[in-house]
Amino acid sequence: MTDAPPSITDLGITGLHINYYVLCPRKLWWYTHGLEQEHATGDAGQENVALGALLHTESYPQQGRKDILIDNLIRLDFTDDCIVHEVKKSKGGEKASRFQLLYYLYYLKHVKGIHTTGIIDYPLLKRREEVKLTPPLEAEVEAIMDGVVEVRDLDTPPVVNAPMPICAKCSYQELCWG
What we know:
The chain is α+β, with helices and mostly antiparallel strands. 43% of the residues lie in helices and 15% in strands. A hairpin with a 3-residue loop joins strand 1 (66-70) and strand 2 (74-80).
């Protein structure tokens, strides 16, 4: 008798895990091993985190309910007419933001039975991007989920051969390249 594969909720994957994996698996590893640099006192990345938090609280004041936590795993910035919204400061990490929202749509579909679409809102840029979960994107989300679990289970951080452009603003830069 074989064990059933773990359910999505059993995997304990959050939207931030998906975002970090797509940005940089090494960043995900540091984060999942208890090193939350972006919230460390005096860290250069702390300003960006504070600005992002302010943006979340001050943008879209007409939305009554924000930060909707579901199953202690996914946190929706807000919903409007059954559309899931993800608020971002800038288009930096655009692919990671898109897959974070796609993961939310995937989770809602497969765990809650809710089929919906999403929008990434960039209030500072006055732009929006519609996001739809398609079968090929579902397969990509599943592959990313597998990657998150694989990276999280490693004993040491995954190898990154050379700094990437995102490393310059990353709060984990010193751990990786210091």
